[in-house]
Amino acid sequence: MNTAEPLTYIPSPSVSSLSLGPVSISFYAVCIMTGIAVAVWLTSRRLTARGGSPGQALDVVMWAVPFGIIGGRLYHVITDYQLYFAPGKDPWGALRVWEGGLGIWGAIALGAVGAYIGCRRNKVSFLAFADAAAPGVLIAQAIGRWGNWFNNELYGDPSTLPWALEIHDMDLPAGSARLDAAGDPIILGYFAPTFLYESLWCLAAAALILFLDKKYALGAGAPFALYVALYTAGRFFFELMRSDYANTILGLRINTWVSAILFLGALTVFLSRRNRPRSSTTEPEQAPAHTGGR
């Protein structure tokens, strides 16, 4: 599957983890945890601005994150089960999260369940938390996508563009690229960097939500609905660009269908809630809508 080497390209790492004695540190996991840390910091600031107290965001996140990781992994394993349970595959690989493979829809769905539990236990408005978390979650996704760069995954068709992505033949359990007879990392080719496109899209979407929420004080539930709408709009096209293996329905990847359905639902929710009172930890979540526009 090698393609001609373009004049310029984005190099990819030939190692995906670092061994410190008996401990192996996955760069994928480092990217995920870094994204979570940034999201917690921003969510805390935004929740405090909505009437929350310092530390409440972290208390809720302590419930949301493990639920989200479990949900993301379950979605990935269920929708791509052949990667782990087909003949000749290693079923235990389904448990090795650090090798990559978190389905965002499962992470958001089960993460929301964890957040709801955390909100109930800490007496925090769930809508206020969701709205506060929306841009931070996008930034976390943007940072997390660089874990795919370390794993040499999430790429599109072969490309000769100046920003084409170099992809190695990775042995993720070993944490490095496979080597040729000369001892050099095997290069599969140069491909469209869909991981980079998605990362940049998430950052742009986060900036837009921050701007609109500050300028117009979006109604309760609208910032989170806008997050879902913006992310799924981009994800729909990124899924069409990807060339890695995935299960399909009527010729389209499962995630493409999910993106389209969620986009329509989220856009409807955003339009219906954007002019309501802003979410707050000290106000009822079912406040009546404004009679006038913004």
From TrEMBL:
EC number(s) reported in the record: 2.5.1.145
Topological type in the membrane: Multi-pass membrane protein
Main localization (coarse): membrane
Highest taxon in the source lineage: Bacteria
UniProt GO MF annotations: phosphatidylglycerol-prolipoprotein diacylglyceryl transferase activity
Cell compartment(s), UniProt: Cell membrane
Pathway: Protein modification; lipoprotein biosynthesis (diacylglyceryl transfer)
Family named by the database record: Belongs to the Lgt family.
Role: Catalyzes the transfer of the diacylglyceryl group from phosphatidylglycerol to the sulfhydryl group of the N-terminal cysteine of a prolipoprotein, the first step in the formation of mature lipoproteins.
Name used for this protein in its record: Phosphatidylglycerol--prolipoprotein diacylglyceryl transferase
Source organism per UniProt: Arthrobacter vasquezii
